[in-house]
Structure formats: structure tokens, C-alpha cells
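Hey L., structure's done. Input below.
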Amino acid sequence: MAQERLSSMAIISIETEIASKLDYEEVIDKFADTKARKISEIIKIHTGANIATSISAILIEWGILNKIVTIVSDNGSSIKHAINEHLHKYHHPCVAHTINLIVNDAITSNEELLNVLKKSRALVGHFKHSVSASTKLKEIQNQMNVPELKVKQDISTRWNSSLIMLERLIQIKASLSEAIIFLPHAPNFLTALEWELISDCLPLLKLFEIMTVELSGENYPTLSIVIPLIRGLQYTLRNKTTTTATGTLLKKTAIEVLARRLGILECNKIVAKATFLDQRFKKTGLGLVDNAINMGKWIIDKINFIMKNTQENETSNMPINGEPNLL
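Output:
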């Protein structure tokens, strides 16, 4: 039943993911109502040819191979090669994944911020693994009549976990600075300048987290909001005021990498058309003048092309006597 529901759809966009098994019912129940389709299968050797073969087998099994209009994935060379060169489908890069790369680039090129993150990790690690330290922090928080909040450790593979770690440090700064006095074996505490640096950089990083959350929605289509979100992020970053050299460098690098990695997306006609067709944006969602002027014509041309092909296919299926072929 699940397979019939999916194969009856007109056009489909899929997202690739490597997994150990495929549950048809789970795929349908989770994604059919949200206009997102995810099909995944484990592949032993991740070559473009092997990935393409596995995806094709699943799409053929489901009877939807000719209905796929785009495949979303990360920017890995193997999956891109599989989609473009073997499956001959349109590849759309995962914007949320690209945002992750942008922030990582901006952070890793900022030595001062990296040093503060390293120092923060050491501090958090101590309170995370020391019973006496965590107990003292809890005791101080009770004395100060503030919520009992623990430190949060970040994960090296997820930049937003560093954001969460720093946000929590800001939240418990007062109780943390009081507790550290009673802990002779604790690592060096953050200086006033380092606290200022964190407060200066957090609003910049928060912008990328907000955009990532918006683009990760499963209950609404996200392609049409990509260009407006990128333009909004660029505008907001440019107008953010920084008070430290570290914050200024983070802002400058983020703007540059954002333009390099995602600025080109408005030149992508598929993404631009999606924005134009969204009633919330239309022409105002586009930044390029040529796109705004020509978008209506491009869409009409595409519709005429589809209608022409449909008519030709219907004509080719007509029997010689002119009567419709009902078989």
C-alpha cells in the first residue's frame, strides 16, 4: 500500500542518506505528508557507480525513477558524481550542510576564537567530570537562588554544539565564577576580555543556527525560502555591530565564505523559480534584477515545453485508426 501511494505521486524530490535498512512504511508515514522523500540503503564501497546503482534499484522497485526531479545530498564528490554522471538527475546541495561548512571555515580561521573555545572546553570538561566541581556549582546556584543548570560539552563535529556550550557558559557565568574560587584544581577561568569576546561572537553564530533550523523543516517545503534566507542572513550580518577584533574577523570571514559558497544559488534557475512561485516572495524574494525581470517568461516557457512533450507523447500512443488505445 505504501509503495502504491508513493508511485502515484506526480513528481518527487528525494534526499539521499546511507542507512542499514529501508522500511517502506516508515518512509511513507514520516515523509509523505511533509512533501519530503527520503530513500536510503547501505553501500559497502561508496563510489559514484555503486551509489547510483543502489539508488536506481530502489527507485525502479518503487516505480518512481522517471518522476524524480531533484536529489538533495551533501557536497560529497561520490554522491554528486552518482547523481550527475550516472543517474543524470538534478543535484541540489543540502544548504544546511553547506551552512555547517561556512561556520566551520569562519571559526577555524579565527585563532582567538579557537583559543577561547579550547579554554571553554577545558573548563566545561572539569565541571563535567569532577563530582566535587559539579556539586559546588549546584550548591552555589542554590545559594544564589538561580536555576540549577549544568555545563554543556560541545562535539567537535557539530559547530552548533559549541554555540550551545558558550550560551550555557554565559547563562551560568555568575555561579560559575563563584564556584571556581573553591576549586583549587580547576583549569584557568575565562578572563573579562574572553567573556566579552564570547558575548560579541554569539549573536553572529546564532544567525546561522536560526537559518539551519528554518531549512531543516520537515512540515513545509524549503527550496523557495533558500534565496530569501541567504539574502536576509547577508543583510543582517553586514549590519551587525561588533565590539572586538575577534568578532569583527568572524563577521568578515562569515560574510565572505557565505557569498562564495551560497551566493551563487540565486543564479540557479530551479531555486530562483521556486522562490518566484512562492506567494510570500514572488519578485521581491530575488536579488538579481535579471531573475526578477525574466522569471515569468522562464516559467511560461517551461510550462509550454512540458505541454508540448505531453501532447507529443499522447499522439505517439494513438493507434493508426485514430481511436485511443485503452489497453
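The chain has 14 helices and four strands. The chain has a mean pLDDT of 82.

-- N.
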